[in-house]
Amino acid sequence: MIYPHNFEQKTEFSKVRQLITDKCLSPLGEERVAGMEFSADFTTISERLEQTEEFLRIIQGEDEFPANYFFDVRYSLKRIRPEGTWLDERELFDLKRSLQTINDIIRFFRPAEDEEIKYPALTALAGNTLVFPQLVGKIDTILDKFGKVKDNASSSLAQIRKEMTITMSGISRSLQSILRAAQSDGVVDKDVTPTMRDGRLMIPVVPAFKRKIKGIVHDESASGKTVFIEPEIVVEANNRVRELEGEEKREIIRILTEFTNTVRPMVPDILQSYEFLAEIDFIRAKALFAQQIKGIKPVLEDKQQIDWAHAMHPLLYLSLQKQGKQIVPLDIYLDEDKRILIISGPNAGGKSVCLKTAGLLQYMLQCGLLIPLHESSRTGIFTNIFIDIGDEQSIENDLSTYSSHLTNMKFFVRNCNDKTILLIDEFGSGTEPQIGGAIAEALLDRFNRNHSFGVITTHYQNLKHFAEDTEGIINGAMLYDRHLMQPLFKLSIGNPGSSFAIEIARKIGLPEDVIADASAKVGSDYIDMDKYLQDIVRDKRYWESKRQNIRQREKKLEEITARYEQDLETVNKQRKEIMREAKAEAQRILSEANAKIENTIREIKEAQAEKEQTKLARKALDEFKASVQSTGEEDDKIARKMAKLKERNERKKQKQKTPVQPVFNKDVIEVGDNVRLKGQVSAGTVMELQGKQAIVAFGMIKSTVKLEQLEKVSKGQIKREVQKSTFISSQTTDEMHEKKLNFKQEIDVRGMRGDEALQAVTYFIDDAILVGVARVRILHGTGTGILRQLIRDYLHSVPGVRHFQDEHVQFGGAGITVVELE
């Protein structure tokens, strides 16, 4: 429920509605904007937001959306329901182009078999929307590209127009002959030519010579200095032209009536398709508005909450943008524990703007509009939004300002619940301050007991104290710079704000003696309390900043500690592994040594102490001993190498302390970097970063590109690639680029002779292969099937053609061949 009835005027949502209406392409979308309404259903809101967010991605991406012909022909379709009525040429032309647009939109959302669905919400919206390619093709046989009935729309019409052309040519020749004779006789000036008056060709003559030319005087100029004569020799021919014009008109009406008879049974289905076109126009307008105000789809949860970071009033943002000024964003938080926010502070400090921002953004969100917030924000849903702002006094209803506020409060108390958000400006004002503050406090207590949410602005001290002592209510303050004597337009939640009445009065220039008298009347305690409040707010901001810095340092210290503990654990694991391997190696060496000694003793015994054998055994033992010693020496060498490596690492650390040139990091893209599209050669410069997208200047052309589609390149790499590619002239590159931009992926050869169609298709396929297109369409119609067979025989012979087939029956069937290229 929304209260009061003029809620949209009070929150200025009516202006938002008008801005969206201005972005619609047709009355189809404008009607949807006019019918846009508040919803409290989570599924409905999520669906609307998802559709708008997907269309915003289409606008910001590279896919070209078909938005050329959004015509509203619903009235014309309803008008032809009675038998004997027909669509005129303009209506038929609009019907054809808008049906083609619907067809193109459906094809845009429905991917090919091997592609993923890019826009699931919009694809679901397209659903089973019907398209009418046969109807469009039939209209193409009747109308030319300018929307006029073709000569070959019927054999009778072709004959009529042929006879009309011949007759007009005869009239023109006869008039030229008469005119030349009259010019030679001096009756008509040399520069005079035949002119058309009332649909008949005539000769302009000076009144004095009008009897020199035999014929009928039909008209004269406004000045009376020229008369227009139809020579008697062409009267019959002109009459025949008139007859032929009548026959032409009757034949056109017959053709249009016959066609309308075929359209009439389809009218309900066509109207249903136009409902889809209206919805697309509406969603497109919402997406364009979201782009204008930097709106996003925030995290939406099915509960009551406001957790907004960097929220902006969209209308204020647009206004300040025109003036070249920056808006101060709003951070606001309401949840189950802190439901009602009491905002205090100086006049003109931004309290009402905070209130309107909260009301407008929440209403926009529940109308399915993207809103300007930070991506980290979380939003909820409220069943009721009640607002009390402005002056509602009425002479007719005998309501004063305060009475109107109390009337609103009566409605609020009776209808508010835990799913209601209340927006009240200057709570309790309009009457004697003491009793007004008491009533406001009592009402605030009722709102809190009903577990309602709210944003309330006030100057009353008792409400600030009540908020400080009551669970569920929290104070907030609009900050004010006492030194510069100007508001900061920032909301600080946690402490009440001062009205800064004395400071503002002094800034405005109120006489100092008046300020002194006012201070004396209020008392020094009250003035000091206000100052103490200011000091508390200032000190809180200071200690909050300190605490934030300490938290950051503690977090950094924890990260460093964790990293060192991890490194220490890794070193200990490596040490244990090395010790285990060393012990195993020592055990192996010891076993080999014992075995060698025992083997030597056995050889000595077996040789019975022969000197030669003993010498050989001793020699073998000495060699083994030398190998063990060499192993020890190798260990020493390894230790020395480790020491050298350690010294080298120390020197590297010392060098790292000295400033060095930044290392080229290809994974991080920043403003000013050279980039190029992945798979492309041409490089551009990053001009601006916008979230996950970048504005890149490729020569004189600026383009918005997703970061994931870009790769960073160094200047040296660009120079090397430019040197490698110098064999391709810039003129050739430009021609190829222009050919790619202007290439259309569809050719229409209907009505052509076989050899003409085949030549056109040959050039078309060559160009498609040249520019690297993956898929094209050839419109040849069904007819006798000869043209279709000729084209397909040619496609069989082209090496670059991978596959071809009939178009889907919904998009033209056998009348269109879809060609897939290598």
Outline of the structure:
Helix content is 54%, strand content 15%.
Radius of gyration: 44 Å
Distance between the termini: 59 Å
> Could you say which structural class the secondary elements and strand pairing correspond to?
alpha/beta
Outline the low-pLDDT stretches. 393-398
Strand order of the largest sheet: 1-11-12-13-9-14-15
Strand content bin: 15-25%
Helix content: 40-55%
Count of alpha/pi helices: 24
Average pLDDT level: 82
Number of strands: 24
- Tell me, briefly, the overall form: flat
Largest sheet: number of strands, sense, barrel closure: 7 strands, mixed
Protein model, in words:
The chain is an alpha/beta fold and 822 residues long. It is 54% helix and 15% strand. The strands form five sheets. It has a seven-stranded mixed sheet with strand order 1-11-12-13-9-14-15, sandwiched between helices. The radius of gyration is 44 Å and the shape is flat.
Describe the SSE topology.
Layout lengths: L1 E2 L3 H5 L1 H9 L5 H8 L7 H19 L13 H6 L9 H21 L10 H7 L6 H10 L12 H30 L10 E3 L2 E6 L9 E6 L6 E5 H32 L3 H27 L5 E2 L5 E6 L2 H9 L7 E5 L3 E7 L6 H16 L11 E2 L4 E5 L12 H15 L4 E5 L8 H17 L3 E5 L3 H9 L2 E10 L4 E8 L7 H8 L3 H11 L1 H83 L4 H47 L16 E4 L5 E8 L2 E6 L2 E6 L3 E3 L2 H10 L5 H13 L3 E3 L5 H18 L3 E5 L6 H11 L4 E6 L9 E6 L1
Parallel strand pairs: 1-11, 6-10, 9-13, 9-14, 11-12, 12-13, 21-22
Antiparallel strand pairs: 2-3, 3-5, 4-5, 7-8, 7-10, 14-15, 16-17, 16-20, 17-18, 18-19, 22-24, 23-24
Helix pairs in contact: 2-3, 3-11, 4-7, 4-11, 6-8, 9-10, 15-16, 19-20, 23-24
